[in-house]
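Sorry, explain these tokens?

___
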Amino acid sequence: LLWLMASNPNRVFTKAHLLDKVWDSSFYGDENTVTVHIRRLREKIEKDPSSPAYIKTVWGIGYKFECDNC
């Protein structure tokens, strides 16, 4: 998940797209899986997970990895 997003900085991914790319279409789950993993990644890489600097939420669409010096 992190590799996919960091390899495409500033690109917005929908939860459905992330679910399909990281887990395959045979995975039995829903988009909340992505939400949980995003939260866990933020806890590991962000200084303040409640105000993320890298993994940003794009309201109504999904998530993006934002990096100014990539």
